[in-house]
Input
Amino acid sequence: MNYFKNKVVWITGASSGIGEELAIQLSQLGAQVVLSARNKEALNLVLQKMDQPTQHLVLPLDLEKQDEFPSLFQSILETYGRFDMLFNNGGLSQRSEVHETIMEVERRIMEINYFGNIALTKTVLPFLRKQQSGHIIVTSSVAGKFGFFLRSAYSASKHALHGYYESLLLEEAKNNIPVTLLCPGKINTSISMSALHGNGEKHNEMDHNQATGMPVSECVRKIIQAVSKKKKEVLIGNREIYAVYIKRFLPALFWKIIKNEKAT
Output
């Protein structure tokens, strides 16, 4: 059975990258998709790429404006009369060393990637608990499994998501609400373009690691497969994901290898 057919699915970060491709592929599987990000025009462009555009909803959202989340969720319920699945995918990356990163950037990355993320989950969670069903999917990163050059705040925010959602999945298992943590590695998206430098300016460069990464369509196919199987965590990428296992089982070797990897 198609796990996504006729499900109402809310995707943040849906204007580009993994979020955009999720919206497209899930529409092909018969889901009714709510597309959220800050850029309404970009969301409308994604909508036109989807199957049956009139079945989906463009709902602009800023992860830093958490007081707006309840009214946005209410508009979803008014539109569809139901809700099934949250893809907490929106976020912000980083390209700066610790010594050059101002505290405003540290706080903003944590505000968007962690606090905005969990605030949206806490918005939909009472509804899911009441209906005793649903699914929460969270885009973390391989950087949520170990630190890396130029990613201190970003990596910290992703590490925080693991602790939070591993706790949530244990707590909500009794309510039939699975949680899936996604850990993409090097994926061919534009995430590096909007990454922040230490002074808050955008990186505005397509990094080699992204340009040569796994095609986003393949990444999303793997995500859909993992979510449909209700996996708790999935690593997605090429050779870089093996670093997670090396760190776990051969930590001394891990540190020798990782110090020679390119940051971008």
In short: The beta strands are 8-12, 32-36, 57-58, 85-88, 135-139, 179-184, 187-188, 214-215, 233-236. The mean pLDDT is 97. The two ends are 41 Å apart (CA to CA). The chain has nine helices and nine strands.
